[in-house]
């Protein structure tokens, strides 16, 4: 069971500094559930290979905004195009999925949970939650997938400018 403070969520969504306050509020929910070493939210435009990092819990090493060409990767095919959650259980999976795997390793991460953010049947973004190998299991993907619905509003607000 995932506990969500609906008052906190409503306050985050209702604040004037959008979409930042919404991203921060949703990030807090993810952090309480997963306690990640690294977590990023991405926006993605259909048909574009470029994902834009729009939120990071480590902005020094993972700045925002930042474009990352993920559409043509195996990860992009799975998460963005097929709208399927992805579990990178070890360093080999990370090397295969992410061109910046060395940077990811340098912050102590060797596993990842990723899920698409889907609105109106289309992928509009993704979330990646990273930690040391063995921290998460494939069963954690269910919670990630359910929580991605909270990112629909801030990603759509971002599109509105």
Q: Could you tell me how far the N terminus lies from the C terminus, measured between alpha carbons in angstroms?
A: 34 Å
Task: Determine Rg (CA atoms, Å).
Answer: 15 Å
Sheet with most strands: strand arrangement: 3-2-1-6-5-4
If helices are DSSP runs of H or I spanning 4 or more residues, what is the number of helices? 7
Q: Can you give the helix content as a percent range?
A: 25-40%
Query: How many beta-strand runs?
Result: 6
Assembly type: single chain
- List the uncertain runs: none
Order of H and E elements? HHEEEHEHHEEHH
Residue-averaged pLDDT, rounded?
92
**Largest sheet: number of strands, sense, barrel closure:** 6 strands, antiparallel
Alpha-beta content class = alpha+beta
Strand content: 15-25%
User: What is the molecular shape?
Assistant: globular
Which labels suit this protein?
six-stranded antiparallel β-sheet, 6 strands, 38% helix
Short synopsis of the structure:
The chain has helices at residues 6-14, 20-34, 74-81, 91-97, 101-106, 141-147, 152-160, and strands spanning 38-44, 50-56, 66-69, 86-88, 111-119, 122-131. With 161 residues, the chain is an alpha+beta fold.
Model description:
38% of the residues lie in helices and 25% in strands. It has 161 residues and is α+β, with helices and mostly antiparallel strands. A six-stranded antiparallel β-sheet has the order 3-2-1-6-5-4, with helices on both faces. Strand 1 and strand 2 form a beta hairpin. Helix 1 packs antiparallel against helix 2 (20-34). The protein starts with 5 loop residues before the first helix and ends with a helix. The model has no long low-confidence stretch (mean pLDDT 92).
């Amino acid at each position: 069971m995932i506990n969500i403070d609906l008052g906190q969520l409503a306050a985050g969504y209702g604040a004037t500094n959008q979409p930042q306050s919404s991203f921060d509020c949703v990030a807090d929910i993810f952090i309480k559930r997963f306690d990640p070493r690294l977590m990023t939210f991405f926006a993605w435009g259909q048909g574009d290979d470029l994902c834009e990092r729009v939120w990071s819990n480590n902005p020094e090493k993972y700045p925002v905004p930042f474009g990352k060409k993920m559409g043509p990767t195996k990860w992009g095919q799975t998460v963005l195009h097929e709208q399927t959650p992805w579990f990178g259980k070890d360093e080999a999976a990370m090397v295969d999925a992410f061109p910046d795997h060395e940077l990811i390793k340098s912050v102590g991460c060797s596993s990842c949970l990723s899920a698409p953010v889907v609105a109106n049947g289309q992928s509009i973004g993704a979330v990646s939650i990273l930690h040391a190998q063995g921290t998460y299991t494939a069963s954690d993907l269910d919670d990630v997938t359910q929580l991605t619905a909270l990112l629909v509003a801030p990603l759509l607000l971002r599109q509105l400018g």
